[in-house]
Every structure is written in C-alpha cells, then in structure tokens.
C-alpha cells in the first residue's frame, strides 16, 4: 500500500464522523483533497463547508459543495485536516502546505478536530519535520534571528506567499519536548503571524491510515 493510499483510507474513514445537515470545517493538503472527494459523495446530507485555504475552496466549489464564510458562522461541529507530524498527546506540526494560520483559526471555532494522516506522520517527539512559521514580510530577518536563538535554523521557504500575503520560515533541527510552551514562545515574537505547532488546539480524534486498516485514536 502506498502512502497516498493510506492517506485516502484515513480521509474516507472520516465520513463516519460527519453528522447530517451540518457545516464541515475543511483543512488543506493532499490528505484533505481525498477528504473533499469523499465529502462530495455525501454533499446532499450536509449544508456545506468552511474552508481553510483558497486551494480547498476551489476544490470544494468545483465539486458543488457550498463554501461559507467563517465570520457568518457561530460554531460548527467538526473540522477535518491532515498533519505533518502528530505525537501521542495528539499535538501536531502543521503548515507543510503553508495554510497553517487559516487552519488554526477554523480549527479554533470547531467543536471537534479530526486529524487524518497516514502512519508515517506518527512521531514520539515533534520536530523532525521543519516547523512552519508564518511571518510578515518586513519582519523576516528579525524573526529569523529570534527563532535561531530558540535552537533551530529558520530558513525562508522560497517562492511561497501565503493566502494572507505573508511568507513562511521553516525551522529545522528542533526537538520539541514541550509543544505548549514552544507554541506560546514563538507566538510572542513580534512579526510572527502564526506557528505550526497545534498543541493548544490539538486533535480530538486521529484517524491513521495503515497497511492493516484505519486506526482510530480518541
Ligand atoms: C497544510 C497542512 C497539511 O495538513 C499538512 O501539510 C499535511 O499535508 P498532506 O496531507 O499533504 O500530507 O498543514 O498547511
């Protein structure tokens, strides 16, 4: 079984967790693209979606799923998204697709975060995947110096502008033993818009595509 087949398996398994007649929060990435395909197969049973990126919005609309503005919704029950890494506490690194800020905002409004991953994303300690940090362009050099003081090596992601008009610094060589504290520390650097540690808003349920079927962790 390929990695993509395991992503697809986890994505389709998420349909079990979508209540009827609801608005669904939708993340971004290749695993979520499979989820959007799955969601289209039950589109007559949902009201629509709230999207975390232009990329996901385009795919949702192309498949005939109405997309609502987050500001028009007080709350919704389920947010489904992938991750770059997830640890046993269900803390994640996200942002490999540069959509971390909108993902964190949509996830904050959702009652339940369902994380869909293939088994390669499971780790004991976060940090082997370079941590994405969205930064205002005028603050790149300052934020880079501050991130390097935390022990990592912050490298500008070339050719990428986020949906919010900002850039991404990827922080290499981190060994994140306290994700909650590091998420706070990086948020406190002036010029940082958002960082890719999802510890304060961790996943509630994890669906892991494996060679022997989908594993569910609650
Ligand atoms: C995008 C994300 C994605 O969820 C993460 O990068 C995983 O992507 P994929 O499903 O393609 O492996 O955080 O910003």
Summarize the structure in short.
This protein has 218 residues and is of the alpha/beta class. Helix content is 28%, strand content 28%.
Write the SSE topology:
Blueprint: H1 3-13, E1 23-26, H2 30-40, E2 48-51, H3 54-62, E3 67-68, E4 76-81, E5 85-86, E6 92-93, H4 100-109, E7 110-118, E8 131-135, H5 140-149, E9 153-156, E10 167-172, H6 179-187, E11 192-195, E12 197-198, E13 205-210, E14 213-217
Helix pairs in contact: 1-2
Bound molecules: ribulose-5-phosphate.
Please explain how this structure is put together.
By secondary structure, the protein is an alpha/beta fold. The chain has 2 domains: 3-122 and 200-217, Rossmann fold (3-Layer(aba) Sandwich), CATH 3.40.50; 131-196, ACT domain (Alpha-Beta Plaits, 2-Layer Sandwich), CATH 3.30.70.260. It has helices at residues 3-13, 30-40, 54-62, 100-109, 140-149, 179-187, and strands spanning 23-26, 48-51, 67-68, 76-81, 85-86, 92-93, 110-118, 131-135, 153-156, 167-172, 192-195, 197-198, 205-210, 213-217. It has a 7-stranded mixed β-sheet with strand order 3-2-1-4-7-13-14, sandwiched between helices. It has a 4-stranded antiparallel β-sheet with strand order 9-10-8-11. A hairpin with a 2-residue loop joins strand 13 (205-210) and strand 14 (213-217). Helix 1 (3-13) packs across helix 2 (30-40). It starts with a helix and ends with a strand. The mean pLDDT is 98. The structure holds ribulose-5-phosphate. Ribulose-5-phosphate binds next to helix 2 and helix 4.
């Amino acid at each position: 079984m390929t990695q993509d087949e395991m992503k697809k398996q986890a994505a389709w398994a998420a349909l079990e967790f979508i209540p009827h007649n609801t608005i669904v929060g939708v993340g971004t990435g290749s695993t979520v693209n499979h989820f959007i395909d799955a969601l289209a197969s039950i589109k007559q049973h949902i009201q629509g979606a709230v999207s975390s990126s232009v990329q996901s919005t385009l795919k949702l609309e192309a498949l005939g799923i109405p997309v609502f503005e987050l500001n028009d919704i007080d709350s919704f029950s389920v947010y489904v998204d992938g991750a770059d890494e997830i640890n046993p506490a269900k803390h994640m690194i996200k942002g490999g697709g540069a959509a971390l800020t909108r993902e964190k905002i949509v996830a904050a409004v959702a009652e339940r975060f369902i994380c869909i991953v293939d088994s390669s994303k499971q780790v004991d300690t976060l940090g082997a995947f370079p941590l994405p940090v969205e930064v205002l362009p005028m603050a790149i050099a300052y934020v880079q110096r501050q991130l390097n003081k935390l022990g990592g090596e912050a490298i500008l992601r070339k050719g990428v502008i986020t949906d919010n008009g900002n850039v991404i610094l990827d922080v290499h060589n981190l060994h994140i033993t306290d994700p909650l504290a590091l998420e706070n520390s990086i948020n406190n650097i002036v010029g940082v818009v958002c960082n890719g540690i999802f510890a304060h808003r961790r996943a509630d349920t994890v669906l892991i595509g494996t060679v022997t079927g989908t594993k569910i962790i609650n």
